[in-house]
Amino acid sequence: xxxxxxxxxxxxxxxxxxxxxxxxxxxxxxxxxxxxxxxxxxxxxxxxxxxxxxxxxxxxxxxxxxxxxxxxxxxxxxxxxxxxxxxxxxxxxxxxxxxxxxxxxxxxxxxxxxxxxxxxxxxxxxxxxxxxxxxxxxxxxxxxxxxxxxxxxxxxxxxxxxxxxxxxxxxxxxxxxxxxxxxxxxxxxxxxxxxxxxxxxxxxxxxxxxxxxxxxxxxxxxxxxxxxxxxxxxxxxxxxxx
Length: 242
Hints:
By secondary structure, the chain is of the alpha/beta class. Helix content is 36%, strand content 14%.
């Protein structure tokens, strides 16, 4: 499995504190059957992340994990805020694409999903990139399903945070999105190996396996789509939003 959304790079944003913390996160991933993790530091105005340094930081963590005998590979990526997107040039977008491919993890602005997210999806498409929408759990209002369906119609995919399928308050809304065919892939959005959300997808996978159309397409959601995303391949969901 691949975790498409994880703040595993140390000392960059509000993620891993140091290499030991990164290793603890990788051990959680390994224990959950995750063999690759996309490092997705915040590319956002409130975090001073140098995109030019990311490749070196990914290599540093991979070398450390190899020394420790942890069988998890860290892949490049970034979590690009919708408000920061207009400032990034094509080379910077390539540097933060998931797995070094052509999909960008896009963080919508706080509040209800608006037309500005669609504009961001269109902007990425014009530049040759696909949009993977992060954090649907933050936008669970009455308009969210229609907005997400519109984004999917423009070629975007939706990445859900796995822990919210096990959260008593958020799970009903997340499962409703799943029933409507508005969840495509998962990510842990873990920030540390010692506190907060763990690097874990299995609980969400179990919940998704109990509802259609997720049950009939679980291999696509868990294996096919994430690997295609990290390879920069076109991805088309085998189910339609309803």
